[in-house]
Amino acid sequence: MKPSYGRKRIGKAVVLLVTMVLFSMLTGGCGNRAMQTVLEDRGDKAGGEEGRTIEYIDGIPMDENAAVVTVSVADVYEEPGVKSLRVTQVLCNQPVSVIRQSNGWAMVKTISGITGWIRTKFISDDISSISGRLYTYRIVVTSREKTVYSRPGSGATMVNAHMGTEFYAFNSSDDAYEVFLPGNRTGWIKGSGIIRIDPPNGEIPVTNAGDFASTALRFKGISFMLNGLTSLGIDAPGLVYICARINGIDLPITLEGQMHSGVEIPLEKVQAGDLVFLAEKASVQETPGTGETGETEGEELKITSVGICTGGSNYIYAGRKTGYVAIGDLYRENPDGIAVMARRIFD
Fold first, then answer.
1. Which of 9, 21, 91 has the alpha carbon at shortest distance from 52?
2. On the CB side of 154, how many CA atoms lie within 13 Å of its CA?
3. What is the CA angle 326-327-328, rounded to 5?
4. Does domain 9-124 match CATH 1.10.645.10?
5. Is 137-197 a CATH 2.30.30.40 domain?
6. Which tops the pLDDT comparison, 202 or 38?
């Protein structure tokens, strides 16, 4: 791994551009995940062309500022320092766009749109594990955690990949896939707990509300971690975000964004897979004799958390005050609040 993130931008960019053109001529673009668009970039330092083709992966341009995450999961902070607030996490092999660097830290934009600071030792400007090579499939981890080994059967552990991690495969043997890893390495991933996307630039298939709820239940008992995204620790919006993502639905990663996703439905119509939003008791009132809740007069409703209905009146959520991923009841208050609204994101 490089001790610093530096790059000889002009030379490398020209080599990469020429390589991509040659691959395109020889293969017609097969096996490349590229979701491409032509950008009019007259100020391009790599050559100053009137226009050039830029590859985007999950909204991140594969240009001279692109990098990939090299570890299983890395924290992204509000400021450059581990004592700062964690604003999100990024997973192994995910692209980020580097905005600037300072003293071993890089300000990056993540695929969820959040900007923050990450240690430069956790990213690499070698993006060949996701761009610029020929790929046969894209492999998405759908279990809570999946090990990538050095050989098809087992061997040394190359990386422990968390749910939502994506790799690009170039070889396969039975149910095992050889994938590119950051740092110009390769490894093997096999068995259950993964899905294969063919072609590799295809979308993750949309499943259904029941599968979405079942995915969330895999996190039951996992510790709460503010702005966490993995089985090492997760928060309520993170649980919704990562479970929706591997079931083919891209949702905002923030609570506020999720409050405006899908369509609003009455609480009495909630089914498995619907989002359930909680509010603090102080901001809701109960109508005497009905058990129904509503907004306290003259007071704005304060949404504090979100869960996923698992069937009946139950929902699963990562409770900040509860301290772990727990099961709640639509009609009972818990330490993080009481259900006050719901939204449906699956048809």
1. 21
2. 0
3. 115
4. no
5. yes
6. 202
Q: Both ends of the chain: CA-CA distance in Å?
A: 45
93-141 pLDDT per residue, tens: 999 999 999 999 999 999 999 999 999 999 999 999 999 999 999 999 9
Q: Where are the domains of the chain?
A: 9-124, 137-197, 209-344
How far lies 252's CA from each of 113, 114, 214, 239, in Å? 9, 10, 20, 12
Q: H/E element holding 214? A: helix 209-217
Contact 107, 115 (CB under 8 A): yes
- Would you say 333 and 281 are in contact if contact means Cβ atoms under 8 Å apart? yes
CA-to-CA separations, 157 to 37, 137, 152, in angstroms, rounded:
37, 21, 11
Superfamily grouping for domain 209-344: endopeptidase domain like (from Nostoc punctiforme) (3.90.1720.10)
Question: Positive or negative, the Cα torsion across 261, 245, 254, 35?
Answer: negative
Whether 58 and 95 have beta carbons less than 8 Å apart is answered as yes
For residue 307, give the nearest of 212, 225, 175 by alpha carbon: 212
9-124 and 137-197 agree in CATH topology: yes
> CA–CA distance from 42 to each of 45, 60, 64 (Å)?
9, 20, 15
188's enclosing H/E stretch is strand 185-190
Which distant-in-sequence residues (6+ apart) come within 8 Å of 168 by Cβ? 33, 129, 130, 133, 135, 137, 138, 139, 179, 180, 200
- What is the torsion angle, in degrees rounded to the nearest 10, for the CA atoms of residue 131, residue 132, residue 135 and residue 141? -10
What is the pairing mode between strands 105-109 and 52-57? unpaired
Which residue in the block uniquely carries the two structure tokens 């017609």? Answer: 28
In this predicted structure, the answer to whether residue 1 has a pLDDT above a threshold of 70 is no
Residue among 103, 345, 123, 325 nearest 212 (CA): 345
d(C-alpha 255, C-alpha 257), whole Å:
5
